[in-house]
């Protein structure tokens, strides 16, 4: 198990604080999932609200262990920037996927699932299924 | 024929227009957006202008691909990937040619606009940059001036529309009555073609 390659998770938010906090939350709720590589990519490089292609690319590279990278985003430019980087083909690691999932619940599901050694498709499915979790 | 120098001038002129109009773009973005369109585009096109001056690419396609890449990496808002995709795809469609004609530019720009539509999912009438770009590309076969007029008319015509994409769409009917900032900056980009061509003619005399 110890040398098993885990899927990496990147959390892209307009806010650096939101991205970092959701990463902390997901890793905390995952318990043993502390071993899952998770990287926040929040805000712009100068610390403002927005999206930075460079922070996203750096975060994705930092969590890539060869098993693929699942990217979760909040909205607007975060989604569009990741899609644009994926369309280019050489700015993100191979087997990087934008996951269609709610940001907080999806991040928790993705990190917990990745901590079991699940593959990228399983992580993606688990995160997307978070949409079906009703609160009322 | 249009060479790399023409395309570099187009980007430099657009950077100057965005500088000049940045406050107006941000003001348009205040009631229906997050009041950063002018400053975001300004940062992006300044990076484009500076880099193209330092290391001018040698083909029209390379100028636009480089400009698009810089916008994606420097803008920080949704206009970065949207304008970046527009220029990058247009540049890729122009290929390696050292010179292109107006018809080739029109075809390439249509490919770029199609890529923007695919990326953002916006259709004409959604109160976005597409409302300026689609009429501009349709008129580009006639002349740059016709395309510029069509883009400007398209931007003005976004005022009564209900926003269906982006942050403005959350406002619902309150988005009505405001001209779309993205359509407005798109009209600036297309107007830059007219000015770049005028510079070419002046230089040829």
UniProtKB/TrEMBL annotation, chain A:
> EC number(s)?
2.7.1.121
Q: Which keywords does this chain's UniProt record carry?
A: Transferase
Top-tier EC class: transferase
Q: Which reaction does it catalyse?
A: dihydroxyacetone + phosphoenolpyruvate = dihydroxyacetone phosphate + pyruvate
A molecular function GO annotation: phosphoenolpyruvate-glycerone phosphotransferase activity
SUPFAM superfamilies in UniProt: PTS system fructose IIA component-like (SSF53062)
**Can you quote a single GO CC term?**
membrane
Matching Gene3D superfamilies:
Phosphotransferase system, mannose-type IIA component
Q: What are the coiled-coil residue ranges?
A: none
What residues does the PTS EIIA type-4 domain cover?
6-136
Which terms does the UniProt entry file under GO BP? glycerol catabolic process; phosphoenolpyruvate-dependent sugar phosphotransferase system
Could you tell me which NCBIfam families the record lists for this protein?
A: dha_pts (TIGR02364)
Q: How does it assemble?
A: Homodimer. The dihydroxyacetone kinase complex is composed of a homodimer of DhaM, a homodimer of DhaK and the subunit DhaL.
Chain's role: Component of the dihydroxyacetone kinase complex, which is responsible for the phosphoenolpyruvate (PEP)-dependent phosphorylation of dihydroxyacetone. DhaM serves as the phosphoryl donor. Is phosphorylated by phosphoenolpyruvate in an EI- and HPr-dependent reaction, and a phosphorelay system on histidine residues finally leads to phosphoryl transfer to DhaL and dihydroxyacetone.
What's the protein called, per UniProt? phosphoenolpyruvate--glycerone phosphotransferase
